[in-house]
Structure formats: structure tokens, C-alpha cells
Design a protein that fits this description.
There is one protein chain. The chain has two domains: about 140 residues, Response regulator (Rossmann fold), CATH 3.40.50.2300; about 70 residues, Orthogonal Bundle (Arc Repressor Mutant, subunit A). The chain is elongated, with a radius of gyration of 21 Å. Helix 2 links the parallel strand 1 and strand 2. The N and C termini lie far apart (about 75 Å). It contains twelve helices and five strands. By secondary structure, the protein is an alpha/beta fold. Helices cover about 60% and strands about 10% of the residues.
Length: about 230
């Protein structure tokens, strides 16, 4: 083992779990340049198991891209949690709506880092979690609370629980003819997340387009007012 490798093995190691090579290399290189941590990147938990023979993890950072299925993410998350139960895991994702954050914490994560965060805030969050804390972005909590006040879930109520709260807010916006980009801005979502909600709403309503969604949502509202 070289001197550099021995020094790295003595420092706490942040393990970046990210299947996309370019993204992984960028995150690892960035963290190495601005922190005292030894940072390594792996494509999945199985790769880390091989590296763990020579390194000791202080923190897992599980990156969640929008294209991966929930089943794949659950398996990867569980693999990390079960492999080293004493090592905290932070979820890193651009899907930072409140429901996603709560689900991550419920699964056992000790923190959630949004890709909207500045780098120094993300590093501070990692340090906080490594020290035994639990970190969630306060602005997401405030945005969710503000959303409940500004956008009551009338469609969800009239549809007898057919929609989640976030889907209901999207339906309300569709009823008003708003574009995905505007909906994303007003609801503090990524535009890709809005598109996912729209697809799910269309499936639930058996609608073929946005106009039909708006029409059926109005039908729900009219029935509830009778």
C-alpha cells in the first residue's frame, strides 16, 4: 500500500453511490477538492462491499436519478442499510418534494440533500449527519407548509382520495390551463416531476390528454357541490 493510500485509509470515507460514471466522477472530484474527507465513488452497494475490505465508511451518499424505478432504489437502499448498519446514509436527489424526503427518512436515511443546494451547505449536511444528526432541507418543509395554505386540496377531497396531495395540486393547475414549467415553479417541483404526476393523473382518470384531465376534474368539482 502506498503512503497516499495509507493516509486515505485513516481518514473517514464518504462513499458516493451513483450508477452514472460522469455524475459520480464529478461529485467525487468536487468533494475531494473542498473537504478533508477521503471520498470514493461506486456504482452500487456491491462494488462497495469489495472496497470495504481496505476502507472504513463514515457515510454513504446514495444518489437517486429520476429515471430509476422505485423497486431498484428500494433494493439499493436496503443493501446499503443492511451491509453496514452503523454507517449513516444520506439521499442525494433532485426529486426533493416533501413526500420523497419523508419516504427516504422512513426507509432509514439520516439525511436528504437536494441538488438545488449550494455545495457548502451539502458538505455541512454531511458533516452534521456524520456526527450523529439528521438533516432535511428546511426550505422544502417550509415550501410544503406554504403549499398547504396557498393551494387547498379541494380536488383530492372531491375525488374521494383518488389523488395524493401533490397530484391534487397539479390537477388544480391543469384545470387553470397552466403549463408544466409554470406548475413546477409554483409548486416547487422539477419539471420532470410534474410530468410524472401528469402521467399518473391521466392513468387514474383514464384520460388521453391534459384537456380531458381538466374536464374530468371539473366534473369531480361539480359533483361535490351538489
Amino acid at each position: 500500500m502506498t503512503t497516499g493510500a495509507r493516509e486515505a485509509s485513516r481518514r473517514p470515507t464518504i462513499v458516493i453511490v451513483e450508477g452514472r460514471t460522469l455524475f459520480r466522477d464529478c461529485i467525487v472530484g468536487c468533494l475531494r477538492s473542498v473537504s478533508d474527507y477521503d471520498v470514493v465513488g461506486v456504482a452500487n452497494g456491491q462494488e462497495w462491499q469489495e472496497l470495504s475490505r481496505t476502507r472504513s465508511a463514515a457515510l454513504f451518499v446514495l444518489s437517486i436519478p429520476t429515471h430509476r424505478s422505485r423497486e431498484e432504489l428500494d433494493q439499493e437502499f436496503r443493501r446499503l442499510i443492511d451491509s453496514e448498519r452503523d454507517v449513516p446514509t444520506i439521499v442525494l436527489s433532485g426529486m426533493d418534494e416533501m413526500r420523497t424526503i419523508v419516504e427516504a427518512i422512513d426507509r432509514g436515511a439520516k439525511g436528504f440533500i437536494s441538488t438545488r443546494m449550494p455545495l457548502d451547505v451539502a458538505i455541512a449536511a454531511m458533516q452534521f449527519v456524520s456526527a450523529g444528526g439528521t438533516f432535511v432541507p428546511a426550505e422544502r418543509i417550509l415550501a410544503a407548509a406554504r403549499q398547504q395554505v396557498e393551494h387547498p386540496v379541494s380536488v383530492a377531497d372531491s375525488a374521494n382520495g383518488l389523488f395524493t396531495a401533490r397530484q391534487a395540486a397539479v390537477v388544480e393547475a391543469l384545470r387553470k390551463g397552466k403549463a408544466n414549467k409554470l406548475i413546477a415553479y409554483e409548486l416547487n417541483m422539477c419539471e420532470s416531476t410534474v410530468k410524472v404526476h401528469v402521467r399518473k393523473i391521466m392513468r387514474k382518470l383514464k384520460a388521453t390528454n391534459r384537456t380531458e384531465v381538466a374536464y374530468l376534474a371539473n366534473e369531480f368539482m361539480n359533483r361535490s357541490s351538489l
